[in-house]
Amino acid sequence: MNDHELARTLAEQAGQLLLVIRGEIDLVAPGTTADHDVVALGDLGDRVANEFLIEQLSLHRPDDVILSEESIDPATRHNANRVWIIDPLDGTASYSRGYPGFAVHVALWEAGATEPGNIAAAAVSVPVDKTTLSTADRVHYMPEFDSGVTGNLHSQAVGWALSARDDIRIVTSPSNPPDELDLVIAGLKQDFQKSISVERRGSVGAKMAYIIAGHADIYLNTWGFSEWDIAAPLAVARHYGIAALLPDGTDFTFNNSDVSVPGALICRRKYVPSILRSLAL
Fold first, then answer.
1. Domain limits at 116?
2. What's the pTM?
3. What's the whole-number mean pLDDT along residues 3-17?
4. Does residue 124 belong to any structural domain of this protein?
5. In sequence order, what are the beta bridge partners of 124?
6. Does 52 share its domain with 119?
């Protein structure tokens, strides 16, 4: 397998493993916590998915370095040419409480890569939706639904299109929506004269996949997170023709000494100027 295929395969397999683990827990209904230890389930999912990904990456790419949310930060990555940046279970709270908004992120940073953020290959798996999106996908984009889109788009592939809805839907973190959300909504209403709704969902990867599926248009985070939260979603979003930027409009960099990232804007490209103007106020 090449790097794109490997990222996709491992993300999907880790996602299936997480479903098996959660399926062994007696969840009476989504969101029910009385019948199981929420913390223990989250810890178990994090650990097992992490062990699986590290084992498989070490087997298939033994010379590469791995940066994972669930492992000690390896000092060797600072001089490495290839670093896998993984989040074995993004959206642990959703996972452990029986909600669908969790994902597996697998991304490869390469020193000489020309792709945004030097992410040469990536995949995001959303197991509950039976969806795995990756830079291995051949994308046939329907540009009539979103003007001004350019990117890594291919013909003779599975077709997809962003929704042609008349409204604008924003997805944010359930616990930490951006402080600037009201400003952004006001700006979008003024610029596009459309109704706007806000939905709370878990994982960054799950929110990105929700946008690609046409169920939402914008994801905004200005609180910040870590490289493993955004490396794979960034690359997959860009591959599918979706804008993915820092909240100030600049590009991401990865494999930094400090793995913190100040946030992200992932959205249909036509909304970028309006949102950036609101964030600059």
1. 3-134
2. 0.90
3. 98
4. yes
5. 105, 133
6. yes
